[in-house]
Amino acid sequence: MAWYSQTWTWFDGSWHEGNPGIVGPRSHVLWQASSVFDGGRYFDGVAPDIDLHAARVNRSASALGLKPTVEADFIVGKMFEGVKKFAPGTAIYVKPMYWGEADGPSTIMADPESTQFALCLFEAAMPQPTAGFSVTKGAFRRPSYETAPTDAKAGCLYPNNARVLKVAKAAGFDNALVLDMQGNVAETATSNIFLAKDGVVKTPVPNGTFLNGITRQRVIKLLRDSGIPVEECSLRYEDFEQADEIFMSGNYSKCMPVTRIDNRTLQPGPLFRRARELYMDYAHSKSKAA
After folding, report:
1. pTM score, two decimals?
2. What is the DSSP letter of 157?
3. What are the mean pLDDT values of the chain's consecutive 10-residue runs (290 residues total)?
4. 151 near 211, Cβ under 8 Å?
5. Comparing C-alpha atoms, which of 19, 40, 23 is closest to residue 31?
6. Is 276 helix (H, G, I), strand (E, B) or coil?
7. Are 34 and 99 in contact (CB under 8 A)?
């Protein structure tokens, strides 16, 4: 059996089922990591903020020195075309991608004129917030803008996240809170992070070390519009150790609770539940639908 779920990819003018071989050993991306991607979601017939995800992948491409070759509206339209290839009710991950195909100057740089685009859709169930996640302190730190392309959703950033997860899972945790170079909490290895304390929601202020997620921004706006105070500020690990609630936001799972930090057990609290409720209400009533 294939290691991947049902998948359809639009590339070079047509749809391909499965995992098509669209790069080779001379492709720049394969050895120099010149790739960017984004992640949207299609579920229950809606695709919340898919236009923002489509626009961001183009910004990421430019930040990495690649040349965006399609407009955001084209990506959105192709997504709605592609989801019809799946059974009704299938939850789908939406992954637009750019990569460098040919070597550019000094080989290290990709030739921007060789930029390739693909839109990959694959079946991915929506996680439910029943069990929650456990976290500990990450073993490795987030790079800064001066040391890595943190202004892009670039593939080259993710091996660092993977080694954070490897250490955390070996210690018996699902995830980890990753610090930046100044010792402030930046995010988890897979998502943005929030805490609640005394009725106030707090989240790390974007400082160039982590992606200011689209779902993160949406959750902040929804909470504030509902009258719940949200502060973007510098947060230390100790702030999370002492929090009343901790929850994550991210495209893959949307809004999920943290139920353990190190040896301390937490319960999914009212502010997490409000954040998830607000987001899901928004997703089903205000987002693009097929």
Report:
1. 0.95
2. G
3. 95 97 97 97 97 98 98 98 98 98 94 98 94 96 96 97 98 98 97 98 97 98 98 98 98 96 97 98 77
4. no
5. 23
6. helix
7. yes
